[in-house]
Amino acid sequence: VTSILDPVVSGATSYPLGGFRLSCATDRDEGGVVFLAGARVVLMDLTFHDRRAWLGDQARAQLDELLQLEPQWDGHRAKVISIEAVRGAVESLFRIADEVSLAPQFFPLPDGGVQYEWHVGGESVEVEVDGSGVAYALATDRDGNTLVEGPLDSAVFNRQVGSLVRRMSLRAMSRSWPLLPAH
Amino acid sequence: VLVTSLPEFSNPPVTEVALGVQFRPVPQLRAIELATLREQWRAELPVAQEQPPLPPISEGQAVGTPPVLFRVGPPLLSRLWFLSEDGSRLVQIQLDRLIVNWRQADGGGIYPRYPAIRAMFADRASDLAGFIAERGFDALEITQVEVNYINSIPLPEDRLGHLEDLLRGLSLNADHHLAPPEQARVAMVFPVPDLGRPPVRLYVEAAPASRPDGQSAVHFSLSVRGAPSGGKIDDALEFMDGAHDHIVRSFDKMTVETMHTVWGKQ
C-alpha cells in the first residue's frame, strides 16, 4: 500500500497537500521546513517541493537573525521580535508568494513586529507584521501612489498583493538572468 | 490500441499538463551551453529560473520497485526553467530531461487542449535535438516518457472527506462509527499493456489540496509513465498520444456524471 500511495515523481509542478518526498531525499529535498533557531525556536512545518522551499530558506536566514536581537536593539525602547510576529510574517509571506517570487528583505520593528519588503523599478510591496502577528500590506507605484492597502486576511486581497509580487519578481528576474551572453 | 473518439469536455478542471521525456544524459548539456537555446526561445519564454534537478527515474518491473535510480557519472548541475511572462508555459531542461508544461495562469486561462501542448513539446524537442546535433553532442536517445494531467476541483472544506462527490463507485465506509472522514485520499495504479515497452503504468491520485487563492480543492492527477517503443522523438510522441488517450478515458470513467455536467461533457 505504501508504494501505491507514494506519489509519482513527475515533471508536473503542482502537488496536493503534503507534496511528495523523494526516496533519495537530502535535507534540501525534504522541503521547506522552516526552523528558526537563535534565542528561541519556532518550528513551522511548511513543506514545499518547488522554489518556495528556497524562499523558506531565505526567510529563515533573515528571521533567525532578527530573533536574536536584544531588547532596546534600536537604542531606545524597542522590544525583542515576538514569536507571533515571526509566525505572522512566514504565514503571510506564503499566502502571497508563489514559486516565482523573489525573497523579500526583512526588518525589525520596535513593537516586536517584523516588516518585509520588495522593491523593483520604483514599485514597492511592504508588509508590516505587528508584534501580535497581524499582517498589513501596502503596495505603491513608482510615483508613490497607493496600489493596494489593507490587512492580509482575505483570499481576494492576498491574491491582489501576490499578483503584484509575482509581477515585480518576474520583471526583476527577466533583467538579471545570469546566462545572457555579453553584447 | 487507440480509440478514435474520446469523451470531450468544454470546461475541464485541468490546471496543469506536463509532457516529458528522460533521455540518456548528455553531459555537455550544461547551463552555459544552453544560453544559445535560451536566446532562440526568449521571445516566447522570456523568464528563466534555476531549479534543483529531478532525479533519474525508471518505471520498475513491479509496483513498489523503488522508482529512483542512483546516477553514476556527471552530477546534475541544475534544472533550467524557461517560462512565458504569465508563467503558463514552461519548458524544463536538465542533462537528461525535457519537460513541457502548460499551467493555468493567475486569474484563469483556458486549457489549450492536448494537440497544442503536444505541438509545443514537439517543437521544443526538435529544437533541442537540432541544438545537440549542431554541436556534435551525443544524440538524443529517449528512455522514459511521462504524461501528467493535474485537475484541481474546488470542493468545500467540509466535503474533502467525500470523494464520492467526484469519483464514481466510491463508498468510503459510510457506516463507520466516526464517519464521515474529515479528509480522504485515493491512489490507484493500473498497468497499461498496449503502450511502449513494459512496464508502463497509469497512476491516479485524488488528494486534498489548496488552490493558489486559498480555496480548498481536490487534486486529481492522472499520470502515465514508461519506456517508449524506440528512442526517437516520434516514438515519444506516439507514446504520449496513447497515454493521453488512456488518461482522458480514465478521467471520464472515474468521475461522476453530475460533475460531467459541470465540466460540459459533450
Structure overview:
The complex is a heterodimer of chains A (183) and B (266). With 183 residues, chain A is an alpha+beta fold. In chain A, 30% of the residues lie in helices and 21% in strands. Chain A contains 4 helices and 7 strands. In chain A, the strands form 2 sheets. A 5-stranded antiparallel sheet of chain A has the order 3-4-5-6-7. A two-stranded antiparallel ribbon of chain A has the order 1-2. In chain A, strand 5 (123-129) and strand 6 (135-140) form a beta hairpin. In chain A, helix 2 (52-67) packs antiparallel against helix 3 (83-96). The longest helix of chain A has 21 residues, at 155-175. Chain A is globular and about 50 Å long. In chain A, 37% of the residues are buried. Mean pLDDT of chain A is 73; it is low at 1-7, 18-41 and 176-183. By secondary structure, chain B is α+β, with helices and mostly antiparallel strands. In chain B, 23% of the residues lie in helices and 29% in strands. Chains A and B meet through helix 1 and helix 4 of A and strand 1, helix 1, strand 2, strand 5 and strand 6 of B.
Distinctive features:
heterodimer, A: 183 residues, alpha+beta, 5-stranded antiparallel β-sheet, two-stranded antiparallel sheet, 7 strands, 30% helix, 21% strand, disordered N terminus, disordered C terminus, B: 266 residues, 9-stranded antiparallel β-sheet, 9 strands, globular
Overall mean pLDDT of chain A: 73
- Terminal CA distance of chain B: 23 Å
- H/E topology pattern of chain B: EHEEEEHEEEEHH
Helix content of chain B: 10-25%
Q: Can you give the mean pLDDT of chain B?
A: 86
Largest beta sheet: strand ordering of chain B: 2-3-4-5-1-6-9-8-7
N- to C-terminal separation of chain A? 56 Å
What multimeric state do the chains show? heterodimer
